[in-house]
Write a structure and sequence with these properties.
- The complex is a heterodimer of chains A (about 375) and B (about 375).
- By secondary structure, chain A is an alpha+beta fold.
- Chain A has helices at about 1-15, 20-25, 105-110, 120-125, 145-160, 235-240, 330-340; strands spanning about 60, 60-65, 75-80, 80, 145, 215-220, 220-225, 245-250, 255, 305, 315, 320.
- Chain A has seven helices and twelve strands.
- Chain A has a two-stranded antiparallel ribbon. A two-stranded antiparallel ribbon of chain A has the order 3-4. Chain A has a two-stranded antiparallel sheet with strand order 5-10.
- Chain B is low in regular secondary structure and about 375 residues long.
- Chain B has helices at about 1-20, 65, 245-250, 250-260, and strands at about 70, 75-80, 80-85, 90, 190, 215, 230-235, 285, 305, 325.
- The chains are: A alpha+beta (about 375), B little secondary structure (about 375).
- The interface of A and B includes residues 28, 43, 55 and 66 of A.
């Protein structure tokens, strides 16, 4: 018996199929990974490199102009034309076989009813190619990350890629490692191993000393992260860029740095009952708010790609549909937005300040003492 | 009297050829293994071509395939004192073993019958999918020139020595089985015309006086390991050009670009570097990132060596990152393979099935 146990222990590792980072990623998944809707690729396995990369810009004798990184299309041109959008677009015209709808964070995590935008490309199209607002999803006050700004920022800040070889989507996502539940990778990790962020316990909101309480997805029922310990630390992730001033073509101004360490940012740290933020709604009120230090996550309030609202603000917060905020002085909708978590607060009209202006003490993020 | 003269003649001939057998030559053994003086033997040897197809050039008893095929062995067989490499296994089932270049079994009509799995060298058996070689880059060269296809005799090429050639001779332009290189079934470094170039691979026109240099494994990689394999010369030339011997030197990649030259246009920068436009060939494997884990030679994905490599010492089991290069043969075989695009592994069915051969170099892409 001992002999057989020894044999088993010796050879057991050989039977464990090692799935590396790519096979663990969304693109490499053998069930729902990449599979380009292309005649010459029909018999290529799902997840195969060829669905994005053509080694010789030629398959079965059908050739095309070679593209950077061996991609079958151009890497990035503008807000509406990027390689990733060849698949991450409306399912009816996506290059990806059986591409699902790609709803916003408010839908996927926030419990909002599915609707427009229903794909990634559409989410970015609240801005035109020159960063001007455009009507999209019946909103002319929407907002989005301007991809050209992201490209310039990561190039100038961290020296990404020579020339126009930077894919701004890569500023947040490693295409070879991004996972369904943890799709992001820190841009500052790009020259290192560029790992997925949030899939390890020390990369979660639970690693903060403050309490992270996921907002409601469905009031009194489900949470945006049902297991709070699984929520990725999007604070650290977003601040990878936003702890710096970031130029905005949309507003022609450097967006304020978001403070965290050593500062009293109302939504990021030291958010305890001593501040006059008013009483909190559930689920936060389930805690003793006079003694509990909360920390909130950026995506609790903001969409990562684009939103019908101003400043990437979500349209459903803490299980409450909050409408479309058109501007920083849209008091009615701002009250609804903030009221999704706060029962009452002073000076609601000053809840949001115009971008780049740091004098408003009631700004969502403490913009005092700007660099 | 006549009998005495005949015996004397045979003795003289025997003496002459006996001495030749001690000369270092690719082939050994009696001449009649491969040559027939008058094509009039009785009985007719079974392993020769039918008498109606003889005589042949150089008094040969059969053509390339005739010698380099076998219905039982898919690696090599013994012919007299000579070991003969098998590049075309004629058995009914796919071979499980094959030499470095692979085996034409998979492309042969009636056997593997898959044009994606080999070069189409058999007469009149053209590619069902392709009209020209992938990456074809020659503007004009007569009718059915070898740059265009390999299954029909070339005509009006403008080079008399090439007209009529096809198949094996489309690539192995000038076979020199009696070349003075190294003993049969023994490895050796080949780097010039008098030795016949590496595996008889040489050029013409701008490639005249050029050929492939490399270390020829003695048993053609019938047995293969990290320390037992061919070695190929590489040269990191201008990655914006289509290649050829004149720009890439006597490398196997230069040879491949004779037909697949477009695929050598890999970069917008002559020196290469990320981002590449096409998969690099004869590009130095960086000693950084995911490539840094490829340190032991893997015969599944061979590398090319720089000119500073000591080819005369034979194969090395080490990968010298920052010097060794990825090349065409890192991913493809030359003759035929079980896999589409003559790949060295089942690329198409990975992941889920297949083999993650790309992972040999791209160590984190798994």
């Amino acid at each position: 018996m001992l002999f057989y146990i020894i044999i088993l222990l010796t050879f057991l590792p050989l039977f464990n199929v090692h799935a590396g980072d790519y096979l663990d990623s969304a693109h490499g998944n053998t069930t729902y990974g990449v599979k380009r809707n292309e005649t010459n690729l029909q018999d290529y396995a799902r997840g195969n490199c060829a669905h994005c990369h053509e080694q010789h810009a030629s398959i079965n004798g059908v050739s095309h102009d070679p593209r950077k990184y061996l991609l079958f299309g151009g890497l990035f041109t503008n807000q509406s034309t990027a390689f990733c959008f060849k698949c991450h677009k409306d399912p009816s015209i996506s290059k990806q076989t059986s591409m699902p709808y790609q709803y916003s964070y408010s839908v996927i995590h926030g419990g909002e009813s599915p609707g427009c935008p229903d794909d990634i490309k559409e989410a970015f199209r609240f801005l035109d190619d020159s960063a001007n607002p455009r009507t999209n999803c019946n909103s002319n006050s929407g907002s989005a990350h301007f991809l050209e700004d992201i490209k310039d920022f990561i190039k100038n800040k961290w020296g990404w890629g020579p020339g126009r070889t930077v894919n701004p989507c890569s500023g947040c996502h490693n295409p070879h490692k991004a996972k369904k539940d943890y799709p992001c990778s820190k841009p500052t990790d790009h020259e290192n191993t560029w790992e997925v962020w949030g899939d390890e316990t020390d990369e979660r909101m639970s690693s903060w000393s403050e309490v992270y309480q996921p907002p409601y997805k469905v009031p009194d029922s489900d949470f945006e992260w049902q297991d709070a310990a699984s929520a990725p630390d999007y604070v650290t992730f977003c601040l990878d860029c936003h702890e710096n001033e970031v130029y905005s073509t949309r507003y022609n101004v450097n967006l304020d740095a978001i403070w965290l360490h050593g500062r009293s940012d109302y939504h990021l740290q030291d958010h305890d009952g001593s501040h006059s933020q008013g009483k909190l709604r559930k689920p936060y009120s389930n805690y003793d708010t006079s003694t509990t230090n909360f920390i909130v996550m950026c995506t609790d309030c903001h969409e990562p790609h684009g939103s019908k609202s101003y400043m990437l603000l979500r349209t459903r917060v803490n299980g409450t549909d909050v409408g479309v905020i058109t501007n920083y002085d849209d008091d009615t909708n701002i009250i609804t937005f903030c009221g999704a978590c706060h029962k009452s607060f002073h000076n609601p009209g000053g809840c949001l300040g115009p971008p780049g202006v740091g004098a408003n003490n009631w700004g969502c993020h403490n913009h005092d003492h700007i660099l | 009297m006549y009998v005495k003269k005949k015996i004397s003649c045979y003795i003289i001939i025997l003496f002459i050829f006996a001495n030749y057998s001690y000369v270092l030559a690719r082939v050994t053994g009696v001449c009649s293994n491969c040559h027939t003086m008058h094509a009039s033997q009785t009985p007719w040897p079974s392993y020769w071509e039918p008498q109606s197809q003889l005589p042949r050039e150089y008094l040969l008893v059969t053509d390339c395939i005739g010698c380099h095929s076998h219905n039982q062995s898919s690696t090599y067989y013994t012919l007299g004192e000579c070991k003969v490499p098998v590049v075309f296994y004629t058995g009914s089932s796919a071979p499980t073993q094959y030499l470095a270049g692979g085996n034409f079994w998979w492309v042969k009509d009636g056997l593997g019958s898959d044009d994606t799995k080999g070069h189409n060298v058999f007469l009149n058996e053209g590619d069902d999918n392709l009209s020209v070689a992938p990456g074809y880059n020659i503007s004009s060269c007569g009718t059915n020139c070898c740059h265009n296809n390999l299954h029909l005799p070339a005509q009006n090429t403008g080079f008399s020595e090439l007209d009529g050639k096809y198949g094996c001779q489309g690539c192995h332009l000038n076979p020199k089985h009696h070349a003075d290189d190294h003993e049969n079934f023994t490895g050796g470094y080949v780097n010039n015309a008098s030795q016949g170039w590496y595996r008889f691979l040489s050029g013409h026109m701008s490639g005249i006086n050029h050929g492939v240099e490399g270390y020829e494994d003695g048993d053609w990689q019938a047995s293969v390991s990290a320390s037992d394999h061919n070695e190929y010369l590489g040269y990191a030339g201008d990655f914006t050009l289509q290649g050829g011997f004149s720009t890439l030197g006597n490398t196997i990649t230069a040879f491949c670009t004779g037909c697949h030259g477009l695929f050598h246009e890999q970069n917008t920068e002559s020196g290469g570097g990320s981002p590449w436009l096409r998969h690099p060939s004869d590009a130095v494997i960086p000693n950084a990132g995911e490539y840094a884990n490829y340190t032991i030679y893997n015969p599944l994905a061979p590398v090319a060596r720089p000119s500073s490599f000591n080819f005369s010492n034979g194969p090395s089991s080490e990968i010298n990152l920052g010097q060794d290069m990825v090349m065409c043969l890192s991913c493809h075989r030359a003759h035929g393979s079980p896999y589409s695009k003559i790949m060295r592994w089942d690329y198409k069915n990975w992941p889920g099935g297949g083999t993650k051969g790309c992972n040999v170099c791209h160590t984190t892409k798994d």
